[in-house]
Protein: VWA1 protein
Amino acid sequence: NRLHATDVTSSSFRLVWPQLLSQETGYYTLEYAPRADVARKRTQQMSGGHTSLVLSGLAPETTYEVALIPESNVHYFPPQTTRVTTLAEEISPVQVLISESGPRSFHVSWAPLLDSVLSYQVLYGPLPGNSVKVLQVDGRHNSTVVEHLAPNTTYLVTVTAIYRSGKEKSLSAKACTQEGEWAA
Structure:
């Protein structure tokens, strides 16, 4: 029944606390900082009606010190504190799915979709062979259509997640185009 975190990921968590104030009786000041670098403290204010807040844009595998200070004009409430450690950066993508395969195109999708990913690169080329093409996909999307392919051909498709931190992680899958339609 006090300040605690839920929905913890590598870059965010939700803070939940009991209703101490109301819209009329005050507001909350929230202070949070990485435990190892308290000088990087951030402060946020919310009206007294709030009982939860999502903090995002956090560093992975980092312990944050969080203090919720109820600023009441009626009663004194002591600050509530908690300590939350974000998860390690998830390995992305963990699955690549090929679907809607036709003679000249197929659909590529991947999961999970993460806040910590800036963009995805989709590399594809026929097997065997070394002609590789690249598609850039915005980090908010988790699928794309690959077009202008040769019919009845096996392609190697590699999806690379490019993290905001500069790290990259890749996963590959094979895709086959369908046989071409016969000309009438």
Notes: The CA atoms of residues 2 and 167 lie 37 Å apart. Residues 4-85 form a domain with the Immunoglobulin-like fold (CATH 2.60.40.10). The mean pLDDT is 91.
